[in-house]
Amino acid sequence: MFKSVQDVIEQLGDQDYICDKKIATVVFLAQQLGKPVLIEGPAGVGKTELAKVVSKALGRSMIRLQCYEGLDEAKALYEWEYSKQLLYTQILKDKVAETLAGTQTLAEAAERVGAQDSVFFSSRFIVPRPLMQAITSEKPVLLLVDEVDKSDPEFEAFLLEVLSDFQVTIPEIGTIVARSQPLVFLTSNDAREMSDALKRRCLHLWIDYPSEELEVRILDRKVPNIDKRLAEEVVGLMNRIRALDLKKTPSISETLDWARALLALNAEELEDQIVSDTLNVILKYEGDVEKAQNELAKLIKKKTAEVSAAQPQVAPAPEPGAVKKGILH
Q: How is residue 204 annotated by DSSP?
């Protein structure tokens, strides 16, 4: 259990998750108030990872519900295992015959069979899905409802009902109340606007792209072999690329992938050729790659002009391709 906001920062840091005070405060309050947390922000900024590290820090198992268009109650809560019911019916057919022995009418037979509903409609024939698993767990768990913005508004309304009371009513069995209230994290990539009803019931947390200083710290923690200067150059160029009008803006996960790729290629600094060759690691659309290459060309031209201006007049101006080192410096 987290003792304070600072304890959250330290414990998540032990899990290699660098967070600021804003994130730590929301996590701490979610634990103290028992309220769900709705985490919104661009894809790849660490929303799902936050839920994972919180579950590890608290020693809770994480149950994940991955949302998608068309997700319904049966896939999220529970469904009946009809094949198992049929198997039991076949096995117990002799007992069924004994139960029906002596009946004179169809109505009487139906009455006797109906009296045995509890045999075939019980928890042994229910297949629990993530929501029910979280509700019925003996120990407190962390429930992650991932990418809730991809689900339909109808499912969002159903989800509110379940998460409000942490109980579910099964007509054939009755109401099942949570044995221990789960800590709930919901993530959204802002594909659609979440309802006011959902936001009202949750603590809200927006995670954006980190500052350059924080992203360098993340690189240092996640890619420990990277040189500090190279890390700063990578983060600086990533921020320039994010400022472009891209179809898909690269996130922290792409920064980490790029840094690892540069280390794999034994890069010591950002040279124009190696940057051009590895842009596909961070950009997923050809149009975005072209925009980034144009930005890179501007940086190289600017650097060339600065080097030329700094040299004595008698010295020949360097060729454009001669500027290899320190694109950002």
A: E
